[in-house]
Each structure stands twice: as C-alpha cells, then as structure tokens.
Design a protein that fits this description.
By secondary structure, this protein is an alpha/beta fold. It contains ten helices and eight strands. It binds adenosine-5'-diphosphate and cytidine-5'-diphosphate. It catalyses: dCMP + ATP = dCDP + ADP; CMP + ATP = CDP + ADP.
C-alpha cells in the first residue's frame, strides 16, 4: 500500500502550475499528472474530426472513445499520447488553447476525464494539476495549492513560452484569450475553477519558479514534520 499522499495544484492559465508541479513531483519522487493535457487531447481529437463544439453528445462520445496516456520521461516531462500518437506539442498550439475550455465544460467529457484522473491517483504519490483537483478529483489530497498570478503576468509568461518555441502571437491577443478562457473556466456550471476551501493560495506574480517550488515542498514536508 503506497502511503504517499496526493498533492493537488489548481489555478488559471499561465499561473505556472505545470512548471511547478513537475518540479515538486521530481523533488518528492512523486508522479506528475497534467490533467489539462487530457482535456487538450480530447479537444485536438474533436478539432481533427471537425466536431461541432456545441454538440455535447458528440463530444461526450469522443471523450469516452479516445485513448489518452501520459508517459513521464526521466526528465519529468510528460509525453502525451492520443490514440497512440505523440501529440505533446500539438495540444499546446493556440488552436487547441482557444477551444479547450468549450470542450472541458461539457459534463460528459468531465465525467470521463475525472474517472481516469481518479484512477491515476488511486495509488497515492501523485502531484496532479488542473482546475478542479482539490475540489473534485482529489478532495482528500494531503496538500492543496491554488496557484495564481496577475492576468498581465500570466499573459506575458504564455507569450514568452510560445515565442521561445518560435510561435509568435500578439501579446494583447494572448491576454484576451487567457481572459476568455478564465471566464469560461470560472463561470461553467460543472466544476468551475475556484480555490478549494482548504487550499493554500499562492500568488506567483512576483515569485520565481524556484521560490514557488520551495514554498510548496516546505508546505508538504512541513506538514509531515508537524504530525
Ligand atoms: N513564477 C514564474 N515566474 C516566471 N515565469 C514562470 C513562473 N512560473 C511559470 N513560468 C513560466 O510561465 C509559462 C507558463 O507556465 P505553465 O507552468 O505552463 O503555467 P500553467 O500550467 O499554469 O498554464 C512557462 O513558460 C513557465 O516557464
Ligand atoms: N482539471 C482540469 C484541467 C484543465 N481543464 C480545462 O482545460 C483547459 C486547459 O488546461 P491547461 O492546464 O492545459 O491550460 P493552462 O493552464 O496550461 O493554460 C483549461 O483552460 C480548462 O478549461 C479543466 O477543465 N479541468
């Protein structure tokens, strides 16, 4: 029986969840799970199939049939496979980012993804990041973090991340897209984005990645020390 607890990290786009969760998992020897990548993979499948993103029945069927797997590399980075195809890079493209929230708000899609995510964490020792982890997927997580940052800073980070990959998108457009996605994620009926009541809220606007990681690791190990 794996007695390692699970860690939940939630927050809006560009707050630094994936970057931080990966490093916390590496530091603790835990498994890192990027739940957003799963919704992105479903979205990519829907876009390729030319599905109507308002056809919730079609999206629910698609989510139930698509095979998604996350494979952790020795460097802690995840390879995302969709029906056996490596879509790690493609799911991060603006076309997917601009549609994923419409797909992720569909109840049948959420139910299927949450079922898979709960299975992934059943053995413990997982750092899972997303939007609804602390409230819905892992309500019994040992430590829940809600990571956020000022909208402008989140847009700057996302803009730089894409530019570093040679993808040049107008920064104002990025900020508008992030605001749109934040609105959909926070206003949807099922599992809206919000901090769990027992989450530790960290604003990383003026923090370094290392500073945030240290805060979280101390919170986890400190928790163990206090017991
Ligand atoms: N505290 C920080 N300061 C500066 N840049 C950051 C910080 N945290 C993350 N980043 C950078 O911001 C970009 C988005 O981070 P990411 O982890 O993908 O955010 P999220 O998963 O919350 O959308 C990445 O390029 C990452 O390196
Ligand atoms: N647990 C999760 C994770 C992501 N999502 C949805 O998937 C989208 C993409 O998630 P992501 O974590 O890859 O996005 P970023 O925060 O990395 O930009 C989010 O905007 C949500 O709409 C969700 O609904 N629930």
């Amino acid at each position: 029986m794996n007695c390692k607890p699970n860690i939940a990290i939630d927050g809006p786009a560009g707050a630094g969840k994936s970057t931080v969760a990966k490093l916390v998992a590496k530091s603790l020897g835990y498994l890192y799970i990027d739940t957003g990548a799963m919704y992105r993979a479903v979205t990519l499948k829907a876009l390729r199939d030319g599905a109507d993103l308002n056809d919730h029945q079609k999206l629910g069927r698609l989510a139930s049939n698509v095979l998604i797997s996350l494979k952790a590399g020795s460097d802690g980075n995840l390879t995302v496979l969709m029906d056996g195809e490596d879509v790690t890079e493609e799911i991060r493209l603006p076309a997917v980012s601009n549609s994923v929230s419409l797909v992720a708000k569909v109840p049948a899609v959420r139910r299927k993804m949450i079922e898979l995510q709960k299975e992934m964490a059943a053995g413990g020792g997982v750092v899972m990041e997303g939007r609804d982890i602390g409230q819905v997927v892992l309500p019994d997580a040992r430590v829940k973090i809600y990571l956020t940052a000022a909208t402008g800073e989140r847009a700057r980070r996302r803009w730089k991340e894409l530019a570093d990959k040679g993808i040049n998108v107008d920064r104002r457009q990025i900020e508008e897209d992030i605001c749109n996605r934040d609105f959909i994620d926070t206003s949807r009926e099922m599992d809206p984005l919000a901090p769990a009541p027992d989450a530790v809220i960290i604003d990383s606007t003026s923090c370094t990645v290392e500073g945030v990681v240290d805060l979280i690791v101390a919170r986890i190990t400190g928790e163990r020390k206090e017991r």
